[in-house]
Specification:
SDR_fam, single chain, SDR family oxidoreductase, Rossmann fold, seven-stranded parallel β-sheet, 258 residues, SDR, alpha/beta
Length: 258
Amino acid sequence: MDTGLTGKRALVLGASKGLGFGIAQGLADEGVRVAIASRTMDGSKAAAEKIGKGVLPFICDTGKADQVDALVRDVTAALGGVDILILNSGGPPPGKAQGVSSDQWRNSFEAMFVNLVRIADQMLPGMIERKFGRIISVISSGVIQPIPNLAISNAIRPALVGWGKTLAAEVASSGVTVNAIAPGRIATDRLKQLDAANAERTGRSIEDVATAARGGIPAGRYGEIEEFGAAAVFLASEKASFMTGSILRVDGGQISAT
């Protein structure tokens, strides 16, 4: 399939590893000029070197507004603008809904919502002017079916969905689409962390937790980051120009809720 992405420009957040890395790699393979960002320059440089294809590394902690603004400025200077924006923030620590401090709620909301929207607001005018843009938020299956012991994520990620659906209607006539991808259990370091936390919480071994989790996935396995990246590449492509305001699930059939 010709994605029509050759020569387009993309910024992928949280791309030093995991889901963001898979997306950045998939876009670069399609001829996209990719800028990646992560919390450390060393992480971004290592990921850029691994992907190759002229990927540009940047640093950005989405919890810090000054770094967010610097990222927008530096990426715009390097690429001349962005056609594809991947909003991917790190996940908050696992835990219950009870007893979360007000500071933790505020900090997580800034990093997982406020500053992602801040980046999008700054990148949108160029997309609208060029009559082409793709904003894709990496969310969680917890927005559809809350995940036990992930209270902060379950509470905040839906805000990004509501914002995206509202924005999608506002910019659709300008050739800009706004969608979200909901990963199921994709084999990443983050998933290992969650399996370990669940093992500690329930008194089981990590392997028992992982085996039980795979048993609840109709596909019978964890997904790969390349599979997740391929879904993002499709949403970014010209072929997906009539898809907007949607949530695309990549979960092996795990979530049965509508």
